[in-house]
């Protein structure tokens, strides 16, 4: 199986991600004078950060740098600020290639580092709250936002609805969620096999390569997951488009935007970054930047939800030096087929999963 580098994902009891950098994108990350680091020193106003146009001009490393800088400055809410100042974007060696991740911006003692507060977390409930605040003065829109919970008839509907709502926000010219969508969720699906459209030339080529390199069982597993997601789409999206025409369509996009292929991509992106919360997961911004450690090496960061704080506590498992990579385990027994099918990467030395 070809080695793919870890994507920047949210991890462990979560279901995570990984991302391959093109040489040009890596160069812009490593060269301090590149556009990304010009933006790192900029710090636009919050309203500018909510504009799609602010992010469209930047490459992936520059987006991560801008996101961290803005979060540390408090422009993305209080929930992110305590942790953001402890991280910096960087590139690290992995199996003969380079991966994008995060390093410590200061020396960190072992023990508690910070808390990613409730305001930083993304769930159906948090997005509904944000939509409710922005729909003030629009009775029909407010009514639809208030009825979002009625669409959730099964546990699977929760992630499907979150995917649909994030698709809606991503299509807008401006959204409070735009920084997260553009900096941390953008293209998170691209190396996950179930996201590859069999009807497209590129998708067919990548699927053939997967079958050749990883074997037919891996391809069948990817196809089975794709069928499951398609079933979630069929169960929720037509109902949502019928019940939420103002929210999903009015002044945003037409129904064709909410295609099954785009839904699959968002669903997989969310899955790859979801932390476990006794349901279909919660998205934890900033944690997306931490890579899974190299095979047979322990992670140096742990994250745990603490109900009394309404957030995730980030802890250093040992002393971490400034400039050292911050890593979080996606699972102590992570095997290569699961790593590929869920997160979109495989590391040297990973064992095969049972049954493959």
Automatic annotation (TrEMBL):
Q: Where is the composition biased (Basic and acidic residues)?
A: 203-215
Q: Where is this region: Disordered?
A: 195-215
Give the molecular function GO annotations. Answer: protein-lysine N-methyltransferase activity
Give the InterPro entries listed for this entry.
SET_dom (IPR001214), SET_dom_sf (IPR046341), SETD3_SETD6_MTase (IPR050600)
A Pfam family reported for this protein in Swiss-Prot or TrEMBL:
SET
Question: SUPFAM superfamilies annotated for this entry?
Answer: SET domain
Where does the sequence pass through the membrane? 20-42
Does the keyword field hold Membrane? yes
Identify the domain of life.
Answer: Eukaryota
The answer to keyword Transmembrane applying to this record is: yes
Its keywords, alphabetically, are: Membrane, Transmembrane, Transmembrane helix
Where's the SET domain? 85-331
What is the designated name of this protein?
Answer: SET domain-containing protein
Q: What organism does the UniProt record list as the source? A: Prymnesium parvum
Upper classification of the source organism reads: Eukaryota, Haptista, Haptophyta, Prymnesiophyceae, Prymnesiales
